[in-house]
Write a structure and sequence with these properties.
The protein is an alpha/beta fold and 239 residues long. 47% of the residues lie in helices and 15% in strands.
Length: 239
Amino acid sequence: MEIRGKLALVTGGSDGIGREIALQLQGAGADVIVTGRSSEKLQAMAALGFGTISGDLSTTAGVDAIIGDVAGKPIAILVNNAGVGSEYELDQPATLESAAHCIRTNLDAPIALCTQLLPALRTQPEAAIVNVTSGLAIAPRAGGSIYCATKAGLRSYTQAIRHLLKDSNVRVIEALPPVVETNMTAGRSGKKMSAHDCAAEIVRGIRTGKSEVNAGMVKILRLVHSISPALARRIMIQF
């Protein structure tokens, strides 16, 4: 896909992986609009030449604000990157709201944006939907049950709509990052991929027309899973 001259919308594009995707798309010649919740971070992105939209994707109002702001604009690349974790605990009903917030942000919002922006994407000579899931969509870890469930759900949704759109101008790409150095993973130890390197693989996947971008260590997980799904699950469940 030729990125230069395209208009891209990157959710969660003011920080982390999303910010790096936005910067690299811009560097490849795209016009980029980013969404986020922090006015300070959005102002910083605006100073770099990005269009910005403030919206909380865990709410219907937030999704509607984004849809309203891009109405009539020739969106050609939609990157559903925004995501949050969950503090859900299995035996604590009080944490159900945290679970619901995670589900609304990570799964409901991408589905809504794909559905409502598809007509605009269809009007372009070539277009792409990029849904950012996770290596944990392949095999979950026990410590992040709700997050893993949302990413697995988005993976399944992505595979299904890819088939539905296979004869259209809209390419559907799934990006599966490993553990990446972001604010979300700040408290975790172990090896982490840089947000810059992860974004570079995703943007390369958009350019080369890949259907699935397995970034960093996810390549190894995919290999293990292809040989033995049960082994992949055993490894990842305690990760």
